[in-house]
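re: that complex we talked abt at group meeting.

here r the seqs, copy pasted straight from the sheet so there may be weird spacing, ignore it
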Amino acid sequence: MTPIITAFECSPDRGKGLARDMRIRWALEEVGQAYEVRFLSFRDMKQPEHLALHPFGQIPTYEDGDLALFESGAIVLHLAERHAGLLPTDANARMRAIAWMFAALNTVEPPIVERSMAWLVEREETWYAQRQAVLDERVRRRLGELSGRLGDADWLDGDFSAGDLLMVTVLLRLQSSGIVDEFSNLAAFVARATARPAYQRAFQAQLAAFRQAASAGASSPAP
Amino acid sequence: MTPIITAFECSPDRGKGLARDMRIRWALEEVGQAYEVRFLSFRDMKQPEHLALHPFGQIPTYEDGDLALFESGAIVLHLAERHAGLLPTDANARMRAIAWMFAALNTVEPPIVERSMAWLVEREETWYAQRQAVLDERVRRRLGELSGRLGDADWLDGDFSAGDLLMVTVLLRLQSSGIVDEFSNLAAFVARATARPAYQRAFQAQLAAFRQAASAGASSPAP
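got the structure back, here u go
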C-alpha cells in the first residue's frame, strides 16, 4: 500500500517548504518510498475526522495500512526504522542520531518558533523591538552551541541521518532572519542538506501543490 | 555497568522534581535499573568536559559503557527500547506511544515553557499581564485538545507508556498555575501517574539530593 500523508491545502508559507509535511516528504524521498497526499483546509483540520488522526488538529499525519501516526518527529523515526538510509545500523550511533532528532525538535526549534510567533502576533506592539532582541539572542545562543558542536564536519554525527534532516528543517525556519548566516558552518550545513536530490524533489512537490491550490483560489489557513 | 546520569547540583526548582533529570530517574525506576548521578553546578555545565557530552550545556546526560546520550526524550526512548515496561511490543502500538513522546516534547511542552520563561524574564514588564493572558490561552487550547483525546481513559493509548511518562512531566511544569485542574481528566491523569511507586522513588531521590546540596550551602544555577 502507498502511505498517505496530510498537508495544508494552501500552505501559509506560500510554498517556501516550511510546513511540517516537508519533513515527511523529504524523509520519504530519501528512502525512496512513494506516497500520496491528502490536502486539508484549516477548517478540515479541526473536524472530528481529522482530530481522530491528529489530536491537536494539525498536519502532517501518516497512514499506512492499519498504522496511523501524528507528530512529524515520530513519522520520520518510523520511516527511518522501516527503511535503510536515515539511521546508522550500529546501535549506539543509531541512538545518537535519534538524540539529534529530539535536540532539533525540543531544544533548537522551540526558541525559533517563539521568535516567529512573536513576529506574527506582537509585531505591532510597543514592546516588540525589546522582545525581539531577547528572542534573537536566545536563538543565537542555541545556534552558537550547535555550530560549536558541528565544527567542520559535514553532518552532526557521522553520515547524514534523520537527525540532520530534522535539524535542517528547523534551521530553515530562520531563513528570512539572516541569523543562520552568522554561523558559516551552519549555513554550509543547510546548503549541503538542501542540495540533496531527495530534498529538491520534496521541495518541488510541495511547491507544485501550493501553486495549484493558489491558482484554484484556495486560501491559506491562519498559520 | 551502572549507568550514570547528570543532574543539577542544586536544582533551581528547589526539589519540586521539575528538572529534566526527573524524566530519566522515573524511567529508570519504572524499568528497575539502578543508576548513579553526577551532580553539576551551573558552571560545570558550561565547561568543555560537559559540553563534550551535551552540546547545549544542559542536564541530563546518560552514560552507559561506550554509549553517551543527551536529550531527555532520547534517553527515555533508549531505556524503553532496552527494557520492558515502557513501550508496547506490538509494532504499531509502539510507534503510537513514541508519537506521544514527541507530542509531549514538541507540541505540548513548548507553549508551557514559553509561559514559564515569560514569568521568569518579563514579569516586571508593563506588557506582562497582556502577554500572560495570550500565553495562558495558548496552553489552555493545547490542554483542551489533549483532554479531548484522553477522555475517560487512564492513559493516552492503551497501557502506561513512555508517552504518558513524558506528557506527565510536561504537565507538572504547570503545577503552580492551576491550569491543569481546569481539565479534571488531565488532573486525574497526572495524579494517577505520580502515584506510581516508580515516580515516588524518583521524586524522593531528587528531593534528597536537593536537600543535601542546600544544607551544604550549594547555590542553584540560574534556571
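couple things i noticed - The domain at 4-85+198-215 of chain A is CATH 3.40.30.10 (Glutaredoxin). The first helix of chain A runs from residue 21 to 31.
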